[in-house]
Amino acid sequence: MFASTAIAELSQETLALSKRLFLQLQRRPSTLVAGILQPLIWLVLFGALFAKAPMGLFPGGGSYGKFLGAGVIVFTAFSAALNAGLPVMFDREFGFLNRLLVAPLRSRYSIVLASVLYITSLSLVQSLAIMAAAWGLGYGWPGGTGLLVVLGTLLLLVAAVTALSLALAFALPGHIELIAVIFVANLPLLFASTALAPISYMPGWLGWLASLNPLTFAIEPIRAAYLGQFAFDAVVLEAPYGALTAAQCLLLLLVLSAGLFVSIRPLLSRKLS
Amino acid sequence: MITLEHISKRYGGITALDGISLEVPKGCLYGLLGPNGAGKTTALRILCTLLAPDQGRVVIAGVDALADPRGARQQLGYVAQEVAIDKILSGRELLELQASLYHLSAARGRERIAMLTALLGMDEWLDRRCGSYSGGMRRRLDLASGLLHNPAVLVLDEPTVGLDIESRAALWDVLQQLREQGTTILLSSHYLEEVDALADRLAILDRGSVIAEGTPAELKRELGGDRITLRVREFASHDEAQKVQQLVQGLKGVSQVLINRAQGHAINFVIEAEGSEALLQLRKQLDAAEVPVFSLAQSRPSLDDVYLQATGRTLMDAELAAVSSRDPKAEKKQAMR
Questions:
Q1: What is the extent of the structural domain holding A122?
Q2: What are the φ/ψ torsions at residue A169 (nearest 5 degrees)?
Q3: Residues of B in contact with A24 (CB under 8 A)
């Protein structure tokens, strides 16, 4: 009885808080649109940049656009999740958070949970839009099972990045600082991954960076799914420290997001207590 | 209904609250009076579980707020000073969100919102987006969200700052109605007349300490003597006022002669005797001492005099001093999580 009341109250407050975020999105859709537009431009412009490169120059044997697709899809989800902390930061700054904190919430983690729900849906919707656009440009479609792989991989990455962004939203003094960090983190992480070029094209040091970059762990299984070569035990990344299978990449992402959520807990508890 | 015991709070090196204790009986409308920076907001934030005191005990409706903050929050409605609303939501959507955070059922939420809409006259605009609301509308919406779960205790931080006279009167009405229905209300204010008119009891807070506590009538009666305000001209200079101060200090039956800078360097003092005869006597003495008189006013002690007696300055003077020493950036940081 007690446990069921707790769960009912927890879901009531979490749903109400998420509803607010979705209403905001519905009435101010610029975040949604910009989050699709930017990767779309990447896809079109970067895809065109190497349009005349000889076939087979890139791993997988297709065009550069086919190679690029997986990178841009991951970048879309990553950018969306990186912004997860912004609404929370604004609530801190404008005092709306205090309004939430005087209420007898069953758990104050429902505030965090609502943000995670919101940003996960937002980033998946944006990624699906980019996948559709890539298909329209002739860069392929992963198929039924492939789609599950793509969405599952994105979920793991989004969870990790959301945790990081929420932690920043509570640790940094204001939105200016948060935006600065997002700005600085965003593109270098993209360039230091296998989104735009394979490791074999990179100098040694960059190859190392790219093989340690979590974005790469998401990009390579998705790329394999797009090429129709996905299997959990298939090698998807030839890293300088050894070959990684798809399963190992996904496991790394899982460990990363679980580890991040565990390590930001003390910060969240302190800020929400 | 509300007990604060020996509450202390420091921010860095600054003592915001220095061991204050308060006791608010059930059904009482209690005023917390003091100039800006006296510690009123800090006290209320501690009471509402937004801030942990360095030491002390907080009990709300029998619930220890430090041991069981969630239990305390259920008893509390809090109307903060800086109204934080979500501009893009309508007032109704904001109240619905609030209803869910207090775990009201959908039906109960609708019923309470309808009831408060009628009580606070929000019918016409509740479905408009909050961004378009005037200050008075926002304050009413905020009061509604504080009252949504029908709390036993309502806490308001400077509820009438920046309100027009009409909205203020309407708010006073609602607060008096709520008190009649048995809600315990604690409100902070730096408006003397507000506390005098509304509060059953009050505490005067200055620099983090309670310097006086009681009913408005008690506090004024305790002071005794009549208050005199003397102006030698409409706006006297400080030098001139000091000369007159010395002259007045030499008079018989006169005490606490002060220069009131906020009133154009008028001279405030207390005479032992009371009534109109006393004023005539005083006038004769002033004439004999060759003090020029622009105006001479006599009154029974006011709450301002209670403050003056305890701190040596008027509330207005303290307020003016506080305005220049405020640090909005530091205040924002304190309020932020």
A1: 2-272
A2: -65, -30
A3: 86, 88-89
